[in-house]
Structures are given as structure tokens and as C-alpha cells.
Amino acid sequence: MTGLRARLGSIPAALVERRDHAPALILVTLGTVAVSRAMSLHQRGDRIQDGPWLLTGLLLLTAALLLPRGDGRLITARGWDRLLRLAIGAGIAWGAYELLTVRDALPFPSPAGRLLEGDDARALVVMAAILAISGLRERPPFGRLQLPLLIGVFAVLGAWFIHVFQDPPIDVWVWQKLAVEHLLAGGNPYAMDFPNIYPDTGYYPPGLVVDGRVQAPYPYPPITLWAYLPAQLLLGDPRYANLIALLVGAALIGAARPGPLARGAVGLLLLAPTSLFILRFSWTEPITVATLGLTLFAALRSPRFRGIGFGVFIATKQYLVVLIPLAILLLRPGERWRDLLRLGLGIVAGMLLFAVPFLLRDPAAFVDGILGFLRISMFRPDSLGFGPDLAPLVGGTVPLWVAPTVAAIATIVVLIGAPRTPSGFALASGVVLLATIPVLHQAFPNYYLSVVGALCGALAVALPEGSNARPAEAEATAEAEPAPPTDLTPAPVAMTEPAGRAG
Q1: Lesser CB count within 10 Å: N end or C end of the chain?
Q2: Spatial distance between the Cα atoms of 368 and 373, rounded to a whole number of angstroms
């Protein structure tokens, strides 16, 4: 009877057990590059080729989920590991090449009198690429300093980029600055309006601009305000918070399971061709990358906090709520239904963590503000996605029900095919977002940084068979609560270091 109770109390192994798969991770790498390519093409104004590259990325990632396991008869596990590192290294080299050659990716020459000139910026890009690619070695040239050096080089590059591009001509940046100023003055950013900085009102739905002001409150979740507050106070520009968030996200992703794959994945993320472009215009997705990194780090290093980390991640962008069902992929073998309940409570706590002051102050205004993004979200035919092609077939705009329907279908697919590992969780998150974002009313390159961050996170924390680095599996064995041994439940076996590892 005790054994039956223990079995009923445990989550079925089929829901939580499955390993990462090196051949699938190669497809993930190629899919990441394809999405980055679509973002880069859209940034430079190529609206013909960006859609096919986006579709290519989605197909590659779907194939990664559905690829049959069992590759040992074709190539040794060690061989797959080397191919995976080669693919990541090629992706890093391509991203650096795009940064160095695409017009407007970097400002060459930079304005006179700046601390860094254009050639210095080129040198930093090359230096970052060398650090990232050489970090794919088992024993990188700078040892444990390899990853901090890579992040440090990008920090200098990102700070210089923000310093060069003062006062970006975009409403997002204006809203962030004014919302912080309003908050410091004792006001409620979720009960204010903003000036229209554009010469016409074509960027907003009809009737939203009255007397030169946009009749909508601050449209982003509270965590962004708390991030922008110190950046505005100390450095005079909220964009530094986005830079710090991107660096923190990269550090957490790289430290969750240290090794060659982690260092390479961080390089793939930071040297994505649009990473600096997104920083320039102060889009909030770097904060999403930081909170995703927190989720992965907690899942591997301190599982009791993974729910809170996931909840904070969900609370950084409104559309991320579609990822909530993927929480089951964060469960570990041997955990029980009560652990799932604890995970769910942690997610709720994380989602509310930064919102409580605004909820207590004016619940109606807060809810209206958070949902107010729907009021300013009009269909944009210049979006990066499938909407511009789909809209003429369905009456000129994409119906609102399309995105949640696509998200539901994608969720079913990933829950069937994704590995039951932190890497599988990150991959599943990237796939669901990549299926959903292209059919939103509007989507631009910044939206897809969340996708790239999730896919790089999947690579960074993967532990494919045949890899060679020390796992962080010490990670969480002490934190997890294995089911007690009974006549029906075998005693847990101590985890041992695998034969090989690349990340």
C-alpha cells in the first residue's frame, strides 16, 4: 500500500525523462542562424527574403523536435559533438561578418571625438568572435576567464554603441524615459499618456492620438520600469538597463552548465547581427533574455527557485503567457505532483513579484495598462512574419484568434517532441514563440531576440551523449526530492559524471 501511494504521488517518468540529442542540437544551431538571418534582412529593409528564412528556421526547429533518436550507428557520439561545435562556430563567424559588413549594423566612421572610433569597434567585434570561437575548445586559451572576457568585450562595444547613438527617434525610448520620470515624481505610469513624437498618426490605431498625445499608458510590464529606474538615474539613459540585462542573461546562460557549448552559445547570442540594433532603439527583449537565463540557471543550480524564475520570465512580455504549459518540462525525474504544485505557486509568485506595488496602488489602471498594449497594437503590413502574406487572404488583417490557436498547436507539438530537460524547455519555448510571433498583428526583429535567446539557452545547457565537459549536475541533486525507495519504486541511483561533454 505504501508503494502504491508512492507511485501515485510521483509524476510518471514518461513526462519527465528524455535526454538531449546532439544531431537535434545541430538543427537547433542552424535554426538559430536562420532566424538571425531573417532579423538581419528585415533590419536592412529586405522584406522579400526575410519570410522564407523565418520559415526555414521554424522547419529546422520542428525537425529538431521530431528527429528520431538513435544516431550511434551513423556517427559516434564524439563525432556528433564535434559537428555541433563546428556548426556553432560557423554561426558565430557569420554573425560577426554581418556586423562588420552590413550597412548601418555599426556606425563607421563614428562621430568625431568619441572614445572609440569605427575601427576600434571593428576590432572589438573581431575580438569577441575570436573569444567565442576559441571558447568552443575543451580547454580554451583563457581558461575560466574565457566567458567573462567575451562578455566584457561586448559590454564595451554595447556601451559605445549606446553612447554614439544619442536620442533614438523611436517612441519606445521616449515612453521609457517619461515613465521613469513620472514614477519618480510620484505618478503612476499605468495611468498616464505620452506625446506623439512622429510627424503623423499613422503608427497608431485611428483615434488613439488626441491633441498630439497618445491616449495609452505605459505598455510594458513593471519589471522593465524597475530595470530602467537605476539606469535613468545613474546613467541618464534607460538603454543601459537593456545592455546590462543582455549581459546578465548571457552570463547566466553561460554559467548554468559551464563548458564549450555554453561559451559558444553565448557568442552566438551576443554576436547575432541585430543585437546592437536592438540595443540602439531600446527594445525591451534583452530583459526577457535575462529572465530566461535566470530560469535556466535556477532549473540547474537551485530548482526550488525555478518556478519564481519562470514566473518572472513570463512577466517580462505579455505574449509570453503562451509558454506557461511548458513549465512541465522543468520537472525532474523522481519528482511528485506536489512538486508540480510548488512549481505552479512559484510561477504565480514570480509573475506578481514586480507588479504588487502597482496592483495595490490602482488595480484597475494597472490591468488596463498591461492590456492596453492591445490598443496600440495595430496590424502592420511591414512586419517581420507571415501576417503580411496572410492578411490579404483573410480580409486585410490577421484575426486576433490566429496567434493563440497557433500557440496551442505548437505547444502540443513541443510537449510531444521536446526533451524533458532544461535544454528541452528552452528549445520548446523558442519553437512556440517562433510559431506565434509571426502571426501577431505586428512583429519586428526585436521580437525575435526572445526566440534567439531561448535557442541559445537550449544549446548552452544541453548535455548530449558523448559530450566532454564537467556537468553542473551537482546542479540540483541535493535540491531535488527523489521518491523514497519502496517495493514498487526503486531506490534512486547517484548521478555520475558522463563520459563526455561539450557544454
Answers
A1: N
A2: 9
Closest CA to 451 of 255, 296, 269, 239: 269
Closest CA to 426 of 327, 308, 498: 327
Kindly give the interhelix angle for 222-235 and 239-256, rounded to the nearest 10 degrees: 120
Mean pLDDT of the chain: 84
DSSP letter at 194?
E
Beta strands in 63-166 (DSSP E): none
- Angstrom distance (rounded) from CA 482 to CA 457: 26
- Residue matched to cell numbers 568619441: 114
The rounded distance, in Å, linking the Cα atoms of 231 and 177 is 10
Task: State how far the Cα of 368 lies from the Cα of 353, in Å rounded to an integer.
Answer: 18
Grid coordinates of 349: 509568485
Query: What is the DSSP secondary structure assignment for residue 499, as one 8-state letter?
Result: S
Predicted pLDDT of residue 117: 57
Determine the Cα–Cα distance for residues 264 and 129; give it in Å rounded to an integer: 10
How far is it, in rounded angstroms, from Cα 39 to Cα 15?
A: 34
CA nearest to 344, candidates 300, 320, 374, 314 = 314
Grid cell in block for residue 466: 558523448
Q: How far is the C-alpha of 108 from the C-alpha of 119, rounded, in Å?
A: 8
Residue 318 has pLDDT above 80, yes or no: yes
Q: Let me know: does 179 contact 192? Beta carbons within 8 Å.
A: yes
Cell 496567434 belongs to 403
Rg, the chain, Cα only: 23
Cα 81 to its chain centre, rounded Å, is 24
CA distances from 363 to 11, 228, 358 (A): 37, 22, 7
Helix and strand totals (H; E) in the chain: 23, 3
The DSSP 8-state label assigned to residue 10 in this structure reads: B
- pLDDT tens-place string over residues 337-367: 888 899 999 999 999 999 999 999 999 889 8
How many angstroms separate the CA atoms of 259 and 276, rounded? 25
Q: Is residue 447 a contact partner of residue 434, using CB atoms and an 8 Å limit? A: no
